[in-house]
Structures are given as C-alpha cells and as structure tokens.
What we know:
The structure is a single chain. The protein has helices spanning 32-48, 83-95, 174-182, 205-223, 273-281; strands at 18-25, 53-56, 98-108, 111-119, 125-130, 136-137, 140-141, 155-158, 161-165, 187-192, 195-197, 226-231, 233-236, 239-242, 246-248, 254-257, 264-271. By secondary structure, the chain is α+β, with helices and mostly antiparallel strands. The chain has a single domain, classed as Nitrilase/N-carbamoyl-D-aminoacid amidohydrolase (4-Layer Sandwich), CATH 3.60.110.10. A six-stranded mixed beta sheet has the order 5-4-3-2-1-17. Strands 8-9-10-12-15-16 form a six-stranded mixed beta sheet, with helices on one face. The model is unreliable at 1-15 (pLDDT under 50).
Amino acid sequence: MTDPNATTTGTGSSRDAVLSVGLVQMCCSADADENLAKALAGIEDAAARGARLVVLQELFRTPYFCQAEEQTRFDLAESIPGPTTEAVAKVAAACRVSVVASVFERRAPGLYHNTAVVLDADGTIAGLYRKMHIPDDPLYFEKFYFTPGDLGFRAIETRVGRIGTLVCWDQWFPEAARLTALAGAQVLTIPTAIGWETGVRPEWETAEHDAWETAQRAHAIANGVFVVATNRVGVEERLTFWGQSFVADPFGRILARASADREETLVVDCDLSQIEEVRRGWPFLRDRRIDAYGDLLQRFGS
C-alpha cells in the first residue's frame, strides 16, 4: 500500500498511486439511527481492508422517501454540517479515509437539496455537490422534495485525489460526467437509489439494469476516469432496489460488482496512472470541437 497521507495530483504523474475505493451497499430500514450505524460500520470495514475513499449510497440514512409526496417527510432533512455529517466525519478522521456521503439537506426553511458531501480523511468537509438533475417519475417524486443544485459540476480536492460526484439521476447525462471530468475529477462517484417497481414488467428488468450500467461505463470511457456507483439493495414500499454497485476503469471495464440482493462492502483498487495512459491512446478531450457545440445550450435542435 502507498502512504495513506500522500496526495495525488494531476492525472498522470509518477506521484499517482493505486487508490483503494470502498463501496457500502446497504438495505435501509425506517430506523435512521440503525441505518447510520450500518453505514459507519461499512466505512470502518472498508478502511480496515485498505480503502482510502469510501462511497455511501444515495440518502443512506433513511428509506427512499420520494415514493410519495408527503409534507411530513421533509422532517427527515437536516443541515450541513449536521448530525449525519458530524457522525461520518468522526469515523472518517478515526479511520483516515475520505468519504462521499449523501444527505437530504435542509438549506433554509422550505429549501431542500439532495446533496453529496465529500469529507476528507481528517474529518473536514472538503466540498459539496448538490444534485442537478431532479427526476419526477412514478415512485421517484423528487421534484416535490429537492431544489435543483446550484453549485455546478465540480472536482473536489482531497488527500486521495480530485473527486467528482454526481447523484443518481445525474448519472444518465453525458454532459454532467463530461463537465465533472473537465473540472479535473479523477474518480467520478455516483451515490444511487435505483430499482424496479416490485413485480411490474419483470421482462424489462435485465434491459433496464444493463442500460444503467452501460451509461456509466460510457462515462468512464468517454472521459478517461474511474466511475464508482454505489446503489442500495432490498425492498422499500413499492420499489425493489437492484444493488449491483460497481467500479469501472477508464476502459469501461467492470473491476468489481456487488450482488443484486445482498448487503455488501466492496474494496476495489483503482490505478490512477491509467487515466493518463488511456487518454493518450484515446484523446477524446483533445479532439473535442468546442467551437461547434453551441447547440448543446438549446433544448432541441432548430
């Protein structure tokens, strides 16, 4: 293992190290404290197995509450800093790991976000990302709860490297991944809560999962970055979450994948020197026609 205090800079210097990443895939109950304890134990487990960056799933402290529009569910939100970030920060500092933790943020009265908090290995908050793309689908009534993010697409400097994060629905948008990579992210982390409506259209399930995974593997390839997607698992209300958290390298290869139906903590080695190697062979960033992309700012072509 490399020195856990070493800082990774750039995307391809000799100082780059193998970064061990932990993914904590959980079932969530109605007991927020129980869920938090489980997540903290997952961080400790991953760190004990060598992880230097640990990624938790979307909204890990609660069940996925967006399946219904109910005013009382806003009571699940909290400030940042707040109880969840303080508890995670304590464990991050004790274990000397950086952590990506997804929080239902109460920013102000009546103003809420779906926020990924990046905590550094000393427990400090290195940065925030507020979910930009907010879905409104059956059982995913997120527009009722979340204001779209206003921090843009970011690469957050940590002791283990430059970490980008998107959140769930963001993962379908190539523009989001590209802008995060252009900001300098080496690892694109994606806390997620995705699954099927239980028992409905089972003939689509394989295709839906394959599309989800393929879209994110494409982000890894097109941008020459590692992608770390952490999903929840289990049945909550009318949804069955399909788990299968995974890590893809800059070639889009799956380095590890969790199960579809069990809680699991993965620890995966990511050789950050691959970023430079792959980008030299596939110079997609070099060959972008930035002079010709103005229509991307239109809703649809003229």
